[in-house]
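so my prof wants the structure for this chain in the tokens format not the other one, which i didnt know existed until like an hour ago. anyway here's the sequence
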Amino acid sequence: MSGEINGVLSGALAMEMKLDVLSNNMANVNTVGFKEDRLFQLPWASEHLRDGIQQDSSNVAVNNISNLAVGTFTDFGQGQLKNTGNTLDFSLAGDGFFSVQTPNGVQYTRNGNFALNKDSVIVTQEGYPVLGTNNNPLKVTGQPVTVDPSGAIQAAGAQVGSFNIVDFPDKQQLVKSGGSLYSPQNTNVQGTPVPASKVKIQQGFIETSNVDSVKMMTEMIEVVRGYETYQKVLQSVNDITSRTVNDVGKIS
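here's what i got, hopefully its the right format
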């Protein structure tokens, strides 16, 4: 009977993990540049890996009850572009990331909701400098500020630099570090940034989250119902086990 209990517990724990992932997606439905996470189980993933999803032990949590390996991957699909009309808002259409200097080193983001600090440096909303192609912070003086689709920046009619837009051979090598920022988890070829070649910048736009709130709510309802089903099955297995222990072999 222990095998049945282990199987039910494994399923229930997988449902619990999925609910955590879906809840986090819903919490970030309005976060600029956010990319949703999805859950997979390795037996499924080994046969049905899709669009660059890679098995990586650092992204996998192992359920010790039945050795069921469950992990997450990030869906880097394009979010919708929203027109804000703000000069320092930028969206990326295609594959690529802005480069940002943070206290933890260079990190990467799709969130182009930028501003100017007191030193006229382009910064994120957290105050982190945005980097140019020379890996130095981008400083602009003069107005107006215009940016062409390639990322070249002009201020008062003079070119002052270009955004350092990069991409990764395998985006699943990126891990979320908060605030729509990503860091490569490996320094191998797949986790090394390269110049982005299939991306265009649009000034006055931001990229919204790629989370489909209706879809997430539907999946959350299904997961809660599935979890409840596992609980009922577990209770039934427990009742059968209890009757077996208490009644089988009893001398009448």
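also thought this was worth mentioning. Residues 180 and 246 are 56 Å apart (CA to CA).
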